[in-house]
Fold:
Amino acid sequence: MPMDPGQIESLIKESLPDAQVTIQDLAGDGDHYAALVVSSAFQGKTRVQQHQMVYQALQGRMGGELHALALQTSVPKDA
Amino acid sequence: MSEHPVFERIKSEVDDTPVVLFMKGTPVFPQCGFSAVCVQVLSNLGIPFKGINVLEDPEIREGIKAYSNWPTIPQLYVKGEFIGGCDIVREMYETGELTEYFSTNGIDVQLANPE
Structure:
């Protein structure tokens, strides 16, 4: 079942309240997304840890009902 | 970690070979676009690696997700360390970090298509 981009964004913000989330529907099929997540919570974390935090926020949907989410994470420029 | 017997197998795979890619399909015939990207990056850098086809091994397919705490395939390991999935591998390749990482780990990079 495809996921709504709004749902992805709210799940991420539940775990990372300060996150700026930009989601792009890559194929227009509600199943292949790209997300850019910017949060100060990523400070001092490796890329793997940052992505793990986002996957954690998605509560097991990644790799399941959410087939493809190309992920890019970063720390806010002014942090 | 002992609750997962497959962890022993995974550990010996990533310890025995310097560069291991857990992927869908084989390096010659990847069966998923994300796995294909990783194969292409490693090939462009001229890195010899072992591809493990998770589609042929359901135990590894599930086990590797728990082992790395990572929900998706492909997964790249270098010298026993989890480097990341497709997005991270691609990002590190584009910024040059991947080349640097291989070099500092004593793995020779031989650019196939210098641009």
